[in-house]
């Protein structure tokens, strides 16, 4: 049976770990509240921009560079939003597995021909895909230390410029979409070229005709880049909220596991202590009997 001192040391270590995980859960809960607030404020704005752009797409004539649909897709770009820190359960691994599964199923020929590139946001995404020899053309570790719209829009504008110039024929973004504190949905969506049918949505029941000044084409040329920036910004905010929710859940589970482990160790300690006391009593009794017989 284990030494009493070793068991006491393990109990102390588990208690210290439990205090750390409990503190991390509280920090994650505070950050989650702020992240949710930013995310919920962005969702209606993003939806309304898409709604307005959908109306304009339905009434316009001509074609815009961001809606260029190539006859053959030769090069593809993925923007993957991970996290900077760990200790958040399967938050990163689940997303990365989903991305790699899609790449293997639909883009294996592009990888073989060096026609697939990645832009990674967050330390975990950068290290994961660089270690696996993916073509990471740009990485942004430490991105979530100070989340700024300007930094996010710069990434999307860079990807848009590469698409418009013909360096890439399709652009995708992958991130964790926030559903609840304990649930996140892995989302991989194509953002370029912009699909007019998808942009307009399924609800085409509104028969009101609008007059646009200076014209739908001119408005769309300004609105669609903004729509793309907001799509990535929304993905970053959704991912940030999902990360805090996943960390909060993981630290809560770790705290409960520490409590269970402490309970088992205390039981083991009491059993060892009882065994030691019983042994000492037996030795005392045996010694007393030996003295009496002598």
Labels describing this entry:
alpha/beta; Pyruvate Kinase, Chain: A, domain 1; 5 strands; 7 helices
Task: Characterize this entry briefly.
This protein is an alpha/beta fold and 294 residues long. It has a domain of 199 residues: 3-Layer(aba) Sandwich (Pyruvate Kinase, Chain: A, domain 1), CATH 3.40.1380. It is 63% helix and 13% strand.
Can you offer a commentary on this structure?
With 294 residues, the chain is an alpha/beta fold. 63% of the residues lie in helices and 13% in strands. It has helices at 4-59, 91-106, 108-112, 123-131, 149-164, 196-200, 216-293, and strands at 76-81, 116-121, 136-140, 170-180, 183-192. Helix 1 runs antiparallel to helix 7 (216-293). It is elongated, with a radius of gyration of 29 Å.
Topology diagram in text:
Elements: H1 4-59, E1 76-81, H2 91-106, H3 108-112, E2 116-121, H4 123-131, E3 136-140, H5 149-164, E4 170-180, E5 183-192, H6 196-200, H7 216-293
Parallel strand pairs: 1-2, 1-4, 2-3
Antiparallel strand pairs: 4-5
Helix pairs in contact: 1-7, 5-7
Order of helices and strands: HEHHEHEHEEHH
| CATH T-level topology of the domain at 37-200 and 216-250 | Pyruvate Kinase, Chain: A, domain 1
Return the structural class: alpha/beta
Taking pLDDT < 50 over at least 5 consecutive residues as the criterion, the unreliable ranges are none
The helix content, as a percent range, equals 55-70%
């Amino acid at each position: 049976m284990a030494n009493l001192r070793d068991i006491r040391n393990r109990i102390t270590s588990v208690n210290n770990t439990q205090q750390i995980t409990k503190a991390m859960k509280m920090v994650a809960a505070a950050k989650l509240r702020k992240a949710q607030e930013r995310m919920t404020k962005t969702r209606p704005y993003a939806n309304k921009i898409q709604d307005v752009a959908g109306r304009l797409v339905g009434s316009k004539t001509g074609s815009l560079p961001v809606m260029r649909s190539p006859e053959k897709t030769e090069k593809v770009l993925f923007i993957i939003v991970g996290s900077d820190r760990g200790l958040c359960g399967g938050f990163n691994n689940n997303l990365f597995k989903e991305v790699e599964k899609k790449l293997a199923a639909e883009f294996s020929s592009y990888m073989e021909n060096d026609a697939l590139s990645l832009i990674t946001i967050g330390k975990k995404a950068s290290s994961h895909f660089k270690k696996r020899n993916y073509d990471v053309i740009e990485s942004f570790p430490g991105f979530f230390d100070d989340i700024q719209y300007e930094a996010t829009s710069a990434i999307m504008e860079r990807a848009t410029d590469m698409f418009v110039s013909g360096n890439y024929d399709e652009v995708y973004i992958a991130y964790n979409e926030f559903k609840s504190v304990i649930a996140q949905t892995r989302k991989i969506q194509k953002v370029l070229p912009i699909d007019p049918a998808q942009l307009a949505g399924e609800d085409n029941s509104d028969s009101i005709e609008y007059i646009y000044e200076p014209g739908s084409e001119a408005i769309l040329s300004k609105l669609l880049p903004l729509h793309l920036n907001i799509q990535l910004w929304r993905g970053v905010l959704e991912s940030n909220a999902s990360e805090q929710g996943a960390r909060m859940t993981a630290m809560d589970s770790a705290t409960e596991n520490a409590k269970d482990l402490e309970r088992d160790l205390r039981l083991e300690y009491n059993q060892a202590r009882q065994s030691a006391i019983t042994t000492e009593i037996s030795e005392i009794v045996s010694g007393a009997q030996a003295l009496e017989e002598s």
